[in-house]
Each structure stands twice: as structure tokens, then as C-alpha cells.
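Consider the following assembly input.
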Amino acid sequence: MDLILQVKDLKKYFPVRKGLFSRAIGWVQAVDGVSFTLYPGETLGLVGESGCGKTTVGRCILRLIEPDSGEILFDGENLLKLNRESLRKVRAKLQIIFQDPYSSLNPRMTVKEIIAEPIRNHTPASKGEIQDRVFYLMEKVGLHPEQANRFPHEFSGGQRQRIGIARALALNPKLIICDEPVSALDVSIQAQVINLLIKLQEETGLSYLFIAHDLSVVEHISDRVAVMYLGKIVELAKDTALYNSPKHPYTQALLSAVPFPDPKMKKRRILLQGEIPSPINLPEGCRFYSRCPYRRNFCREMEPELKDIGENHWVSCHFPVGE
Amino acid sequence: MKQEPLLSIKDLRTRFHTYEGVLTAVDGIHLGIYPGETLGVVGESGCGKSVTALSILRLLASPPAQIEGQILFDGNDLLRMSLDEIRRIRGNSISMIFQEPMTSLNPVLTIGEQIAEAIRLHQGLGREEAWEKAVDMLERVQIPSPRIRAREYPHKLSGGMRQRAIIAMALSCHPRLLLADEPTTALDVTVQAQIVDLMEHLKEEIRTSILLITHNLGLIAEMAKRVVVMYAGKIVEEAPVEDLFSEPLHPYTKGLLESIPWMGRKIKEGRKPLQEIPGMVPSLKEMPRGCRFHPRCLTARDRCRNEEPPLIVKHGRRVFCWLWT
């Protein structure tokens, strides 16, 4: 099957500047050699704790943040080689939904203007055609066309997220990067938005890169899941394999830390020591070394590579759990 | 269990006088917390769960807030106390931890100074003794090298460390009741697991009762013994935690439990659409008549639209719904 997206060895380091001449005194290795693929109609979940680089990966794909190196092949085209104009054209098929539905919509534009803007910018459609399309999109995401002339502040959080989704859908994209699309919403509203995203995918066959920290939401929506830790993917596998038999000690601890909504079940929990270390000037060896319950001396000397240990289950650990 | 409750709230009503009129954030709730128990309060944003906690300690500026009812702590009504009396209770026999660990610490005082201050004020210890005790508390919440950390300012600590420091401060005077308002919401899951473990551990040690306010049903399942579910300023259901999860009585509770994706469910049973609760939480400005949940309720009948549901006691559980009359 043709790939819709292929990311190869993506890197982004941010300088840490200090002093009078703002010299770089160190580098935050926000994304350090991330590679993955995405098939048409598929959802890849990207999970990790704050600071692991998952949002930077999403932004780098759209070149909202310029990556330092790597390749991003979208529909066969290397996005990092494109000039501004060709990139603008490609972005019609590559969209993003943001976490915060309050700050990602222009407060001075009506809903109609917000949804119509990408259509106006990318197609020669007439006023009437644009209006029809806007109403069609609003209905599709569960908003009433009568609300088209209202402003974002008149809507609740869940409805605003629907506006953001309608805007992303306006040009029939092939891939939407969803950056924590439901984490700002209340639980009862979260379900509405998740169901909407799944329904839209079934209808149009688009792909999602679903970036989130909530492991249960990611399980529900994803076909495959990648776990990030300090700028690297530590494990990538099909949903069943990753949740049923996690191979990386970090994935295992992460899954065991999620509180389970059943008071009768007392879980055995792997408590990690400490927190994610600072991603500035990381030491050699495995990045998870300082918190790993199964660490050995060897792990400090050699950095593990992401390897396929069978059936497309990728792990970056010298001693995968249960192997 | 025929114990006297440590804290009992009777007909609490908290209103805010605003330019848009009087908004009732908490509308006549009754609840009791028994010694040594963890009572969970769940609900979505705007249901009044935080305002309840703030009302207990009278941390709301009045005006605009107006608190009515009774909050009996050890038989004394907190709402009738003078400011001096309530100050002696705050941070001493009742303390509170908030969601945002950065804004609840003073940025220009070191961690140690802040904890020692609370100890000096409430326990009348001298400077040195209070400092030693602060360091001791930091050690008990498992902050590494507490003596060094005590001399650092809040910005130097990570989110998890700050929340530990706040817990240390809240527990430094051995409170009999701890109000924990979304104590782990701002934290990552692996850190949340550490903090939950810490709170459970300290609870055993100090025998504190905890009022745990959260929207996270997983956290409730894990920590609470009894649960109160709030919706739009009212309690809709109260039950022991096992009963609430195995057999929710109120349609709202049922909807909440079914709307969250449980980890492992899709993999076991295949993907089914999540149960949605249609519509959204009503605004305080336009409360629906009758049962406040009726516009979103799938089982609403005529009666629900016009009359407020009464309290129904069923097998020792409380529920406010016409379904069970």
C-alpha cells in the first residue's frame, strides 16, 4: 500500500541561549531522530509525557517549526525541499487541529469566515459555492448553519473544537494532525468529539496523526501507537500488541500508571523514580537509564536503536520486557 | 458505621452577585465526611465542586460571594466563626491543596521558609525548630536531598516536586481534614501515580480525612471510599465507590461512566462508538426548570421537566431522580 506520510530521522534541536550576546550554551534535543510511517485511512497515536517532543513532531511535519534535518515525505513529496508557494499548496491536504479551542480561532472572525478562509485561499470558488460548502461542513461536524454568523466566544469549548475540525476539513485533506484535540474538554464532551473524528475518518478515509497524553483515548482511536520519551520513539506497535504486551520498560510503567475506573481492580503498579530529566545535553547511553527499573550497566554505555522484534513491533531497548 | 461526621455540610448555598445577576454556583447541598475516610467529589467544570471546597474554608471574597447554610466541623459552624477563628483553622486542622502547583507557592520565598512559616504560625514553634520540621516534612514527601531543596525557590522545582512541597506544607500541621482540589490534574501520569501513592501513604500515617475533588473517574475509583456526583450546582448521587461504578443510579452518572474510553476495552471488545451525553452543561444564568439534567437525559419524562426531583434513599445510597420514585 502507498504511504501517505513517511518521516525519516527527523531532528529538531532548540538552542538554550544565555548572556549578553545570546550565545547558545546548550541544546534541547526536542526531537532527536524520529522515524515512522502512516498509511491512508490509518490513525497513528503519538503518546508521551510533557516535554517528550510529541507536539514538536506534529509542528515539524507541517513546517510550522522548521526541522533541522530529516525527511518528511507526504504523498511522495519531500516537504523539506519545497519552497513557500509549493508548501502552501501542499498544506491544503495537510491540516492540523489544536488543543486549545479558545486561542486557535480568530475572535474577530465569524464562524463562517473562519471556515471559508481556507476555501477562499486555495480554490477559485464563487461566493455562493463557498457558502454552500461552509454550511455543508458545519452540518457535517454537528453545528447548525444558523450559527454561521456568530463569533467564537459565543460557543462552548466542544463546539469550538467542532469549528476547528470544520476548518481543517474544508479542503478535503488527506492527513490531519490532531494535537491533543480533546484534552481541554469535559469528559461528556470529549466523547462527542472523539466519535466525530472517527465518523469523519470512516466517511472520507483520511489519516490522523493523533498526538495525546491520555493513553485510554489514544487506545480508543488509534490503529498503531508510538510512545515517545525525551525526543525519541521508544516503542511503536499495533494497538493490541502495545497495550497487551508492552516491550519497553517505559511503556510498561506508563500503562501501569493510568488509574483504572474500576474500584474492584487493584492494579499492580510500576512506580518510576523521579521525573523526565531535562532534555538539555543528554548523556550517552539509553535516555531512560536514570528511571529504568531493569537497567544494567551496559545501558549506560550504548544507546539502543529502534528495532523490529517481529510482527512490526518496534522497540528501542537492549533488553525488551519478556523477550 | 454510626460515627459522627468530622465535617458536615447542611444546605450549603453559595451565590455570586455579578453584573449579570445572582449566580448560584452551589445550590443546597448536604454531605458528611467521616474521620479517616476519603470522600470523592466528581463532576465537570462548573458543577460547583471547587466552590464547595472554597466555601468550607471561606476562601471566597464576600462580596461578591454569599455563603449560606451550615458547615459543622467538630460541632462548630465554620460559617459563623470570626475571621480570627477561621484563620486558626485554615492550614491547621483543615488544609487545602490546589491544582496549579506554581500559583499556590510564593515565588519570592524559598520552599523551606514557606513550610516553616505555616508551622511557626500554627504550632508556635521557634524559627529553628520550625525549619527543622519543614526539612523533615520535605523528606517525608520523598523530596531528594531535602536540606538543599528547602533553600531553593519554587521555580527551580519541577511540577511534581512543587506538588510534593505543597503536600508537605498542607500536612505539616497534621490536619484532620485535607481538601484536595484536582491535586494531580496538572501532572503527567507517571508523576500522578507517585503522588497518589504518597497521599495514600501519608493518609495512613496521619489519619487525615480527605475530600478529593476531581473530574478523573479513574482517580476516584482508586482513592475514594464514598463518592458524591455533582451536576450544575447540585448533588445528583452519592454512593459507596463500588456501588457507584457497578450500578450507577442517576442517568448522569451512568452517562459519565459510559462516555470515557476505558483502557483495554477496545482491544478486548473491538471499537464501539463512545456513549455521548448530548448537549452541554447548562450555564448558571439559565438553569433549566425541574431536574437540571433533563435536557440531556435520555429517560426524561414530563415530571422531570417541571418538578425538581426529591431525595431518594435506596439501599443506603442517595440519588436525586424521578426514575427511582
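Chain B has a mean pLDDT of 90. Ask yourself how this observation constrains the way the partners meet.
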